[in-house]
Amino acid sequence: MLMFYSLRFFGVQWKLLTCARCFSKKNIKTISFSEEGLICKNCWQPGEAVFRVELIKDIMQWQTLEQINFNTLVKYKINNEIILLFLDALWILSK
């Protein structure tokens, strides 16, 4: 969670309420770190990464959190998948 917010320092502004391509709120399929947002089923292209639905739901829920503190972070598990996504986003930004 905190990792996603720390990317703001690098100019990343997450679009986590609608599809980053068509702005639809329906049928969200995955998240794109290069486009800094969610991608719906209609905009997803074959060959693009697809992440677990649970991860997408967690990320969308984090967008609505107003206060980030230790108690909030304890509620949300930080797993290897999220850490790898964060590192991938940093790699994209470093190009």
UniProtKB/TrEMBL annotation:
<dbReference type="InterPro" id="IPR003717">
    <property type="entry name" value="RecO"/>
</dbReference>
<dbReference type="Pfam" id="PF02565">
    <property type="entry name" value="RecO_C"/>
</dbReference>
<dbReference type="InterPro" id="IPR037278">
    <property type="entry name" value="ARFGAP/RecO"/>
</dbReference>
<protein>
    <recommendedName>
        <fullName>DNA repair protein RecO</fullName>
    </recommendedName>
</protein>
<dbReference type="GO" id="GO:0006281">
    <property type="term" value="P:DNA repair"/>
</dbReference>
<dbReference type="GO" id="GO:0006310">
    <property type="term" value="P:DNA recombination"/>
</dbReference>
